[in-house]
Design goal:
Number of helices: 5
Largest sheet: 5 strands, antiparallel
Order of helices and strands: HEEEEEEEEHEHHH
Number of strands: 9
Distance between the termini: 57 Å
Strand order of the largest sheet: 5-4-6-8-7
Shape: elongated
Length: 263
């Protein structure tokens, strides 16, 4: 029972923290995402930043999408430069899959990660298209401005999930350019942050600790208290009762077998 008490003493205070850590991670970091869904005439951008913040939805015209650009960022998601490395073919001349062309979670030899921009432009009232173009001021805190083109805004898509996916950024950039050139009429880009293995492990340990604590609690008996206020008086009172001699029976009760006769 002492060993069971020790295990319960360890798991009771620690299991809530093991459950709380991954739940906070899920709600604050691992629900972050950036989705871009484009149709024939318009695009819908949905951004869910880390933390207990709601999702920002922004709709803009198809003609406000300029292009896509492959970039390099550091481990904090900060822009390093444009990725000008050549695009390797998926298959070799012999028809075999090119292992060098497969995407990498990173980082590369320089410690940089692959990401990409979706370049948007501000809406104009005198646009040649019969469509309403939206002002980008609603997403200014999510984009960066290009000094060479002040009316262009760079939206970094792969920002919250660096090092978590193998999808090639240049393949995604090609899809963006194909949509912008009317070669395709639908485009869907989803960048979701996933739960790390540390969070999954902490969640499992927390659940296991909680169940083990409940099981141990069924076999643990609380020891009786031998101290406390009034314990000495109770012991003396009980001892005095034990020292009292038995009462003598009368001859009439003894003749009746020890029972008093009802009169």
């Amino acid at each position: 029972k002492n060993s069971l008490f020790i295990h319960a003493y360890f798991f009771v205070p620690h299991s809530p923290f093991l459950l709380l850590k991954p739940s906070r991670s899920v709600s604050s970091i691992y629900l972050a995402s950036i989705w871009l869904t484009c149709h024939a005439q318009y695009c819908l951008l949905q951004i869910t930043p880390p933390g207990r913040v709601g999702t920002t939805s922004f709709e803009f015209s198809r003609h406000q999408l300029v292009r896509g650009r492959a970039i390099k960022v550091n481990k904090y998601g900060e822009f390093i430069g444009i990725d000008n490395s050549p695009t390797l073919p998926l298959y070799t001349s012999k028809g075999k899959k090119n292992k060098k062309s497969t995407g990498s979670k990173g980082p590369d030899t320089n410690g940089h990660y692959d990401s990409y921009f979706v370049v948007l432009k501000d809406g104009s009232s005198d646009n040649p298209h019969d469509e309403y173009e939206t002002d980008l001021s609603a997403i200014d805190h999510f984009v960066t401005r290009d000094p060479e083109f002040p009316d262009h805004a760079n939206l970094q898509m792969r920002k919250f999930n660096l090092g978590q996916t193998r999808r090639r950024t240049k393949t995604l950039v090609s899809k963006i350019d194909s949509y912008q050139k009317n070669r395709r009429h639908q485009l869907t880009l989803k960048e979701n942050a996933t739960l790390s293995w540390q969070g999954i492990l902490a969640l499992i340990l927390g659940l296991f600790g909680g169940m083990l604590t409940c099981i141990i609690g069924q076999f643990y008996d609380e020891p009786s208290s031998i101290g406390g206020p009034g314990a000495r008086q109770r012991r003396q009172h009980n001892a005095g009762k034990r020292r009292q001699p038995p009462k003598k029976m009368s001859k009439r009760d003894a003749a009746n077998g020890g029972f008093k006769k009802a009169y």
